[in-house]
Design goal:
Elements (H helix, E strand, L loop, with lengths): L2 H8 L4 H7 L4 H10 L5 H11 L2 H17 L3 H15 L6 H18 L3
Length: 115
């Protein structure tokens, strides 16, 4: 297995499940993982949070939930779920929840930088 995929799996992500969704193709999976840093949804989430817009924040967080789930990024899904649920109800997440999510997102981007 590719070293990047090994690092993702060691960090608690569901690499085998994601590879199954990508028909066992490490190359295809890595290609999609490499696109994550360019995805603008994370930026949209933060713009919505800064504006206090729970509806736009929910839309972005929910999109990220699906993206992370398909990519097997389990830890990001787990940290994103509370954000989604709070904003689904019209509220805004606590700063510590956002900080934990951001830290994991940045750590994941660090691993993906090797692609």
């Amino acid at each position: 297995m590719n070293a990047i995929l090994e690092a993702l799996q060691a960090a608690g992500n569901d690499v085998p499940g994601a590879l199954n969704r990508f028909m066992g193709s490490e190359a295809m999976y890595l290609k999609f993982l490499a696109k994550l840093p360019q995805d603008e949804t994370y930026t949209q989430l933060h713009a919505a949070l800064e504006a206090g817009d729970a509806q736009a924040g929910f839309a972005a967080a929910h999109t990220l939930k699906g993206l992370f789930g398909n990519l097997g990024l389990t830890k990001l899904v787990e940290l994103n779920n509370p954000l989604v649920e709070v904003m689904r109800a019209g509220g805004l997440p606590q700063a510590d929840e956002v900080a934990a999510f951001d830290a994991e997102f940045q750590a994941t981007l660090g691993v993906l930088a090797g692609i």
